[in-house]
Amino acid sequence: IRMAASGRVLNVNLGVLGHIDSGKTSLAKALSTTASTASFDKHPESKERGITLDLGFSSFAVPLPKHMEGLPYDTLQYTLVDCPGHASLIRTIIGGAQIIDMMMLVVDATKGIQTQTAECLVIGEILCDRMVVVINKIDLFPEAKRDNSIEKMTKRLSKTLASTKFASSPIIPVSAKPGGPEGPENESIGVDRLIEALNSFSSVPRRSSVGPFIFSVDHCFGIRGQGTVMTGTILNGSVAVNDTVEIPSLKVAKKVKSMQSFHQPIQRAMQGDRVGMCVTQFDPKQLERGLVCMPGALSTLYGAIVSMHKIQYFKGPVATKSKFHVTVGHDTVMARLSIFGSPPGSVPRDFSFDQEYCHQDELLAKPMSSPQPAAVAAAVVDDDKDVVIGVQFGLLVFERPVTCPLDSLIIGSRLDADIRILLMHACVSCQWCCRRFGICTVQLLLLCVEAFDSFIVGTR
After folding, report:
1. Pairing of strands 258-261, 252-255
2. Could you please report the per-residue DSSP string of 336-359?
3. Residue 460: is its pLDDT beyond 90?
4. Phi and psi at residue 373, in whole multiples of 5°?
5. Helices H / strands E in the chain, number of each
6. CA-to-CA distance for 391 and 367, rounded, in angstroms?
7. 380: number of CA atoms within 13 Å, CB side?
8. Which residues contact 371 (CB under 8 A, 6 or more apart)?
9. What is the pLDDT of residues 179-199, one digit of tens each?
10. pTM reported for the whole predicted model
11. How many angstroms separate the Cα of 105 from the Cα of each of 172, 230, 239, 249?
12. Is residue 370 classed as helix, strand or coil in its secondary structure?
């Protein structure tokens, strides 16, 4: 629980995603009462090009909704994570989406679902359970036909969402900035109704101060006479002023001099909070994005064993020996994949070196349709053999080392193709920090993967 001037604050990180030029930043601006140092396209290049190029952060607070009364909080704060919509910035979008608790999918009222809208919907299905759909720019409909046009668009969107986990998501029509960029300020339409929908649809995200402190840094800058400020979101544990923190990628430890959350000084913060952390004698050019943690909590990894799920909208094969991009937090790296799974009829959930596994040529995708016991809920069916296959795992070998905690979410994609494709998502199940496997490790893995001449591995 973070203490602020308004009392005990529950922070909910609300992602703002959608196609380029759907009005995401205008909506964030219309909702927000407090801006951070990185918000509303303050970057000079963003202003010049008129599009969002980086993650933006801002916030607004409301009284605790009725369904949260009785909880140990006084105020509900929404931290808006404004993600870019341009296709070339998909890495940034994925990185920003991995810190959200809830999502707003912004749709241009005159265009409906577009390419990046669909990509953001897929990312949302992987990363969060709650979403509010916003039909923006309704002022572009002629007033006499506005209600009818909104109704038609709402039906179209409901039909699209019917086959997703977001079938019951509220759909709210708004106009964040009537008249466009040259329109008058503070004359938005429907924003109050949107806030009401967010309040009624929100839930208490998982929050705990237990465990090692892990902090996802998205911006780093210097303040003359003060030190270097690292801004980001706490992924795990808690931190307090005067604590020592480590930047594992640089093998550097620093003491926390002071902290703020949206310009309010704080002494302590915990999982889910967005904070700015000031340290001294550190060059901000050394860290643009990355992880900061309790000393010794994270290691530099060379590969990982992950439990894998194929994204249902990707119809092509995800094959053993293939190479693709994997995104872990704000870091994206090329990796080579070898796939293996439990023998037919065996469905253990967790990876274990004591278990024997079978090599797979590709990742299977079809979920089991008939009701099954909870023990096999994560299994899939091989259509050709009509047998149950257990949880599928992949051995990822990274082209360069990365830093990530256990249980990290990994998203696999092809970002170098003409059409950027999301392939699979995975959870890190086992990790190594050495550049080569020992003899025993190789023997245990020979049942499930092709032996390479040199292994560089690590993860969960």
Report:
1. unpaired
2. EEEEEEPPTT---SS--TTS--EE
3. no
4. -60, 155
5. 7, 27
6. 11
7. 18
8. none
9. 877 777 768 999 999 999 999
10. 0.81
11. 10, 28, 32, 34
12. coil
